[in-house]
């Protein structure tokens, strides 16, 4: 368990250190005048996993434009769930790629962003079994996880907004312009 805490602490520090490398949070503008806000956005929210009924929290920070309409984000999440015989939790660490479809869809209102997203990373899982006699459990690191989704953001102003994603799970949260 001590190893798990050290890995978690180090991973969280690395994710938040990414914030220090943020450059500007200016709106991106394409040739046809459509806008999307991507780089410089911190997205924090609550999530539900569809495969096991897990609930949790997630955060990602879009730190880089990968190309026209694409961003890359460092992502971290925590999800937990239980069954009649065990309690499970997973800490996910990875990257989230977003393709903003504003330009393709002709969305010129800078209050709205529509995107497709894909996640890839690894998970640190903990399981505690209760066999009726004694508690048992263990930790492991999954070699890879992935997820896909579609979503949208509504920007109340340049500094705060709301976001939602549905796909391999569902997320709803707040977006901060940094």
UniProtKB/TrEMBL annotation:
It comes from Flammeovirga pectinis. It comes from the Bacteria. This is Outer membrane protein beta-barrel domain-containing protein. InterPro entries: OMP/PagP_B-barrel (IPR011250). Residues 1-22 form the signal peptide. SUPFAM superfamilies: OMPA-like. Keywords: Signal.
């Amino acid at each position: 368990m001590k190893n798990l805490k050290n890995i978690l602490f180090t991973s969280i520090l690395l994710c938040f250190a990414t914030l220090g490398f943020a450059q500007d949070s200016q709106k991106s503008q394409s040739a046809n005048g459509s806008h999307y806000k991507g780089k410089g956005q911190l997205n924090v929210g609550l999530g539900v996993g569809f495969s096991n009924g897990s609930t949790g929290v997630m955060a990602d920070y879009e730190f880089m434009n990968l190309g026209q309409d694409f961003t890359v984000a460092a992502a971290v999440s925590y999800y937990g769930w239980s069954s009649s015989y065990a309690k499970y939790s997973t800490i996910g660490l990875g990257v989230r790629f977003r393709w903003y479809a504003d330009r393709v869809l002709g969305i010129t209102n800078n209050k709205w962003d529509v995107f497709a997203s894909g996640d890839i990373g690894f998970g640190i899982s903990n399981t505690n079994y209760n066999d009726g006699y004694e508690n048992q459990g263990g930790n492991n690191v999954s070699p890879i996880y992935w997820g896909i989704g579609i979503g949208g953001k509504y920007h109340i102003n340049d500094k705060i907004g709301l976001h939602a994603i549905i796909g391999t799970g569902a997320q709803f949260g707040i977006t901060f312009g940094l």
